[in-house]
Each structure stands twice: as structure tokens, then as C-alpha cells.
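job 3f2a | input accepted
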Amino acid sequence: MSLSRVNASAATLTKNRTEGSVVPASGMCVTCVDGCIGMCEIGKSAYRGHEVIYPQPFGVITTASEKEYPIDYSHLNIIGGVVGAKGIEADSDKAVFPAVNLEVCFGHDNGLKFRYPWIIPGIGSTNVAKNNWEGLAIGSAVAGTGLTIGENVVGMDPESVIKNGRVVDTVDLKNRVKLFKDHQRDGYGAIIVQANIEDTRLGVQEYAIEKLGVEWVELKWGQGAKNIGGEVKIRSLKKAQMLYERGYVVLPNPTDPNVIKSFERGAFKEFERHSRVGMVTEESFAQRVAELRKAGAKYISLKTGAYRPAALAQAIKYASKYKIDVLTVDGAGGGTGMSPWRMMNEWGIPPVELHSLTYQYAKQLADRGEHLPAIVAAGGFTFEDQIFKGLALGAPYVKLIGMARSPIAAAMVGKTIGRTIKENQVPVYVERFGNSVDEIFVTAAELRKELGDDEFEKLPTGALGLYTYYERLAQGLRQLMAGSRKFGLEHMTRDDLASLTPEVSQVTGIPYVMDIDKAQAQEILNS
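job 3f2a | predicted structure (527 res):
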């Protein structure tokens, strides 16, 4: 069985001529015919070259690997029993699933509190993030969860004011923070500002702390989608030149007269803006943490990606040694913006394996009494069953699940429905529920009551979409937890899971389903 789809994918807008007869190893048509116009990835690369490295059309899509990994979270099952309850009295009238508490507190002073155990772990300067930020920020704030402003937002903003290489004013970052803060309720949730190399050079986090009142900042080593820095496509020559002047890697060189002529001629329509890869050392890490604390950061987190195990060990050890509050570990295959397509499919350690290593390494430090940050497990999570499994697999060290693509999808759908309502063109598929916001969004009545009519009417439908999706996840997670007799997140353990194959058990350390409760079962039978 081939684990990868090679040479043709909806992500690159390519397909095979003979879709039913394809060589598994190469992805080529079994018969490659002279005269074919080149619909496959090889063919398209013959005339568009490096453009075909990336998913298309850029700016209106989110992307993730379509590789079929040998192990994923579906190879674990949730285990429940019929005896007792943890976190509540073992009374059938009290131990009902709405009573499950999903709130989580973390941070060095336990001062960070979320209504739900998940977070959007970093979406930055891509168009798909910017165009849906209103829904994402307001929806996250109203729901009481976290949202991370990803890399390059300040550098990409044409209206940023930069003096002597440091940012002194922004429009985009300021707006992104304000949208969240203006809708935050009762201190739940958090807005986080992330930084890569370029952001650090610009002093973005110092600006966010001092001028925007941001308390939580994040260092970024990478993500699960790719092993290089972030990239976007630029359709404006003027903007490409601005980014080049700000120190970004821009391809092709937008200041080269020949490149300018080619662009104006229409030979190509997009420039690529790339970020540099980081060079991690313990000394530089310690120095940056100290700088951020001196600048006034109340909480500091680190996001790392699907790198080799030694890099994961570094992340956990450094986070422990320098008392980082939160560590996000992002498994391979995920992505929200424009990661190189083949890289996204073929690079990195997949989520189950990476999260299993994370548990092993964290346990070693915990057993020695060393500090551990709250850990966020990320990489392809979308629904409540996966959230349960991620929390249980990493218990008690994993406190949150990171999701990006699915919240973006929810916000995009909510936004689109809002547009169709205004245009009186609600699709039939949606119209069966009604033609107004109050009829279509099932959480509308509850939110209108909580917020009041005036505040509710100001909510963008993108935010309603995200909030309603989160409400579904919360109810589904409560049901699963109640079935496992766990009425608070602190009671979840690895015993709540079973491996469906011996191979999965070997990777995760979770017992094979046929080996669970063996001794206990025999004791019951022999009593």
C-alpha cells in the first residue's frame, strides 16, 4: 500500500490523464503519452516550475498533508467503565455529562484560564488568516479560549512604521489584538503574539507588550507543516519591493530590472516572500527569554514542530530549565497557509509518534522533580474524540490541544453564511434551518441572552461560526468524558485509552485492547 499520493493532487490543481492506471512509486500515468498537455504535477512543472511546489490557489485555502500515515489517532480507542465517577459524586442524578468541567488553568501562577482545553496555536500573515481574523479573534474571545497571532504580521503590514529597524507603530497587529481584547469575557482566554527571526529583529514582541498590553508572547522554532520559515505569495511589485527592503528573502529579486520587466510583461504574477530558518542555541534561547521577561512579558511559550527527537528533547529541556509557561508540540502534516506541498506530505514526525515521544521525555523530567510547562499537542485535530485522545495520551502533562485549520474552516463557513443572508441567497442546504442569523446558528439564542441584543447584533457571523463549532466540540467532549467517568480534565489519564494493534501499543505505550484489565478481570471472575 502506498502511503503518499504522488504527482497529482487537488492541492496543486493537478490530475493524472489515466487516473485508474497510475504507477504507485512515481504517481505517473502507466502510459505517458507524447502530446499530453501536462495535467499532472510533472507536466505542470514543465511550464510553471517552482510555482507548483505550493498548494493553489494561494490566499483562499488552508492545506494539510494527504499522506496516509501508518499510525494516527483513529488507531486508539476511548475506554469507559460502569463503576464510579471522578470529579463528582457517584450519583446518577449528579454525574450527568453537562456537569463535566472543561475549564483549564495553567501558567507559572495558574493565572491563565480557558473555558475549553484548546487553542489556535499560530496563524499569521497569510491572506486566509487575515481575511478571517475578525471571526477568529472575536469567536475565540467570546468562547474564552486562546488565539496566537503568528509570524510576520508586522513585517507584512504596509502601514507599519519602522524606525532604525524597530517597529514603533502598526495597524494590522494593533487591530488583531484589539479585536480579541474588546470581546474577552471575565478574563477567560488569551491573545498571544508569536515571533520568528524577522519579528525578533523588528522588536515586535517588545512593542506588543509595551504598547498593546499583551501579556503572553511566544518563541517559534517551527511548525508541523514544514521545516523552513513561513512563506507567502505577493501579487504587488511595490509590496514585494517593500518586503525586500525590510530584509525578507523575496524571490525573484523585485529590485532586479530584468525581473521587473518580466513581471510587468506577465511572465509571472506572484513573488514569494520567505522567512529565514532559526539557529537554536541554548545561550540564545536563554538570552531571549531573559529579554522578554525584562520587557514585561508575564507568560512565555515556545512552539516547536515535527523535528527529529533530539530537537524535541531540546525544546522540553530548555522549556523546563528556563521556566517556560507553555510548550506547543506540532506534529507533521498540518498547515494553515502556504507550505510546500511535497514537504508537507513527506517531512517530519507524525502526531501520534511525536506526542508519544513528548510524553516519554516529559515524564523523565517530571520523575526527577524538574519544572514542566503546560504542553499543547497539535497536528490535525478537528473533533472531540481526537481532543480526548490527545489529552489522554499526554496526561497529565498535555493541558491543551492546538487546532488551526478546523477553526479557520468554521469561521469561513460562518462568514459565508452571513454574506448569503445579507444577499438573500441562502443556499438550500442551509435554508432548511431558516433565513436569519437567529434561525441558522443554533447558539444564537443563548449568546443573545448572555451578551444582550446590542452586543449580539455586532457579532460577525464568522465569530458565530467559530463559537458554534466550539460549542459542539465542548458538548461532544463532555459526553465522552462522562462515559469514561471523568468529570474534570485533571482526572483524565492514559488508562482512558486502548491501542487497537500491538504496533500502536509499541509506539504509544498504551496497552493493546486485548491486554487491558486482564488481572482485574480474572480476579472478578475467580471471586
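job 3f2a | The domain at 96-228+279-334+343-492 is CATH 3.20.20.70 (TIM Barrel).
job 3f2a | closed
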